[in-house]
Amino acid sequence: MQPKGNLPMMKPDDMQYFDKLLVDIDEETLSPEEQKERKIMKLLLKIKNGTPPMRKAALRQITDKAREFGAGPLFNQILPLLMSPTLEDQERHLLVKVIDRILYKLDDLVRPYVHKILVVIEPLLIDEDYYARVEGREIISNLAKAAGLATMISTMRPDIDNMDEYVRNTTARAFAVVASALGIPSLLPFLKAVCKSKKSWQARHTGIKIVQQIAILMGCAILPHLKNLVEIIEHGLVDEQQKVRTITALALAALAEAATPYGIESFDSVLKPLWKGIRQHRGKGLAAFLKAIGYLIPLMDAEYANYYTREVMLILIREFQSPDEEMKKIVLKVVKQCCATDGVEPQYIKEEILPPFFKHFWNQRMALDRRNYRQLVDTTVEIANKVGAAEIVGRVVDDLKDEAEQYRKMVMETIEKIMANLGAADIDSRLEEQLIDGILYAFQEQTTEDVVMLNGFGTVVNALGKRVKPYLPQICGTILWRLNNKSAKVRQQAADLISRIAIVMKTCQEERLMGHLGVVLYEYLGEEYPEVLGSILGALKGIVNVIGMTKMTPPIKDLLPRLTPILKNRHEKVQENCIDLVGRIADRGAEYVSAREWMRICFELLELLKAHKKAIRRATVNTFGYIAKAIGPHDVLATLLNNLKVQERQNRVCTTVAIAIVAETCSPFTVIPALMNEYRVPELNVQNGVLKSLSFMFEYIGEMGKDYIYAIAPLLEDALMDRDLVHRQTTMSTIQHMALGVYGFGCEDALVHLLNYVWPNIFETSPHVVQAFMGAIEGFRVGMGAAKILQYALQGLFHPARKVRDVYWKVYNTVYIGAQDSMIPSYPRVPNDVKNSYGSAEGEGFLSSSCKLRVKKVELRVKQVEFRVTKVELRVTKVELRVTKVELRVTKVELRVTKVELRVTKVELRVRKVELRVTKVELRVTKVELRVTKVELRVTKVELRVRKVELRVTKVELRVTKVELRVTKVELRVTKVELRVTKSSYESRVASYKSRVAS
């Protein structure tokens, strides 16, 4: 359905929420509430079903007008939508974002709707999707900040002792989020009251669960409040209700896990009840108590850990035979934690733990449940770290020939992890034979080709190293036989195994065997399955890496032409392995292939720059560098420059990186002339590509850039004066890398010159240009010193316009962070005033004492000096005059003037000389003339009668806030001055300074 107006399509499920928009009605006839409701509906429909630009605009509008719409109308429409059963994940995410935004705006207006929001949002906290849980936590956190702790507690308090466990669970999680938002201390009094509630055990259960969820959510942030949290819940270990005792033990386990490896002192009060508990409880209660002790033992000192481990191990061994799956997982976890503790002796583990452990856990049933499988493998590896590899491998090696494949995989994974951690040093020759025999059997008897077997085989062979030499013919025979298998998965796995064991074959000096495998793999390059072909190329790459170019069979000159057509394959695995192999040949054996073949490969490589996978693009641009080194840069460069004209941006960027790598490989002077020539092409993409290439090039070549900075400066000037933003952005990025590279090589003049072109971009608003500008300034700071940047920045730090000041302060702060020490000598000297002294006598004395100046001959000749001041303006913006107390009393005044005549015929005022001196500015006025020709004043009759006048002024203050002195034009001309110093020596001494300080 399509509503009228600029609205998106409506789904059938949306009808019940947005049906009013389908009715064509004159909105002016509606009441204000209905108009508001209709407006919110339109915005929500745009957010839910609209295009990204439409959604963005609607989201901004609903956020800005949130207070105008009001909390009621907004939540009355958003919350039913969120509870819709047909809501998709993406739509839910968008509506959650709406709530998140409007909560900030509504602030305390949201209080009446807290319960309604929580009913909708709390279920997200136990959602299967991780991102849904994060969104739920974020909304409740913002809600708590907006509504306040009192409102949140009063709203959720009734749900704490709800009979439904689902409601209690979500409430506990919501309280944990509130604690993380508003701080644990603010919630502690409430938790103390709830956990000791006598009214119902459900309230106590929920209160303790809140503590558990706080520990899970906040991790080590609970450490400052650990003792208080433990004291709040410790009584739950002896509660009359079984469920309360269980959740208390689980909460203690969560607190101990969050506090690891600190905080054992806080748990002193609960050790005794826990210890009693593991002797009294059975089933789920015992599992929880064991879990708590398992997390507490790693916090203890080695001596105590050893004692408690021996005590708890008796119960653990008894529970090895428990049929309960949950109990098995917890027992395995606790055994792992106990064995990892420092104080436990290997001998004790060998004698007391290993026999029952292998008897009860190492069976086929454990391999079927994935969680048990993972826990058993981890625990066994941890035990092996304590007692050694041979002890564990010897017990499980025969199980590699077990009839159950899943069990064989579990054994193989365990052996792989043990060998990877501990190596094969303590494995004797008999066990070595059993091991090779077992892994060959397990590898060959696979029905589903799994990476577990492949990893295990590779790890064991690599761990044994030279000791595997007698078994290599048998292993290679198995590989060759499996390369002929009709199943693609089997062939792929065989090829993958070659790449894993190629290094060991080299160590064992089996080059003839590797050569034979190389020929076989070469014959299989016509493989039709791309996954298998990718593995075959990976195996060839592994052999080429270790055998070298000269001994490789087939010869490189035959191998490379077969690889060229494979580069056209669009499968990512094939592309990645093929380009890696071609790059390795180009790097080490380019002379075995003709230049024409390399050029063919260059053209094929251009297509690989379009690949989606970054690793392929990176390998491709590196290969361009190798090829350029092999056949010379000119042909390769011509191909790459031509590719700058394509429309696709990713392709052009990769091309610029390849050009930079060619420059780094073959020296920049081979590339820069071609790039500068290409910049003359009046096409935007090409010019931007050239600038990008220069940016990458200066980044790669570093200090070599000092030889090319003057040659490239005119091109950069031109680009910095271009109207196109991208031109200037890319050029500033280039200058950043250039300035960093030439630091300390005396190129400051060129950098200052370029800075004058970069600086006008200071007021750009585009985020990318701003970032490039700040990067360039950072580069200049390093390249030519912070002092010069400071002189530029000082001009605008105190500008009257705030936006101008902000930009300049941003520059200043950036320079300050990077080089505050080198800015100190460059700060302007501020003269002392009546109140403040801005100089440092000690610093100046130190400078004068350590300064020696000797001048043999100085001549200064100035021919003419003229100083002209055309205009001087002095403005005083505000003057306040306050008089403390003035009293004027006039009782009676009478003034009568009958007739007054004043005639002035001529007045002359002559001022010969006036001097105004302002510190360093002198204003001299030689002659001022004032002539008044005629003034007539006639007063016929004036009467002034004042009976009584009283004037009282209590206080008078005079304040001048702002005085401006503007000098528009000053000219200084020096006609002729001669200063000659024939010979002088000046040595400043510390003695006078010391005497001054002493006095």
From TrEMBL:
Pfam families: PPP2R1A-like_HEAT (PF22646)
Keyword Repeat: yes
Record domain Phosphatase PP2A regulatory subunit A/Splicing factor 3B subunit 1-like HEAT repeat: where: 629-701
Keyword Nucleus attached: yes
Gene3D superfamilies named among the record's database cross-references: 1.20.5.340, Helix hairpin bin (1.10.287.540), Leucine-rich Repeat Variant (1.25.10.10)
Gene Ontology terms, MF aspect: mRNA binding
Localization terms from the record: Nucleus
Alphabetized UniProt keyword annotations: mRNA processing, mRNA splicing, Nucleus, Repeat, Spliceosome
Top-level lineage group: Eukaryota
GO biological process: spliceosomal complex assembly
Gene Ontology annotations for the cellular component aspect, listed alphabetically: spliceosomal complex
InterPro entries: ARM-like, ARM-type_fold, PP2A/SF3B1-like_HEAT, SF3b_su1-like
Main location: nucleus
Family of this protein: Belongs to the SF3B1 family.
Protein name as catalogued: SF3B1
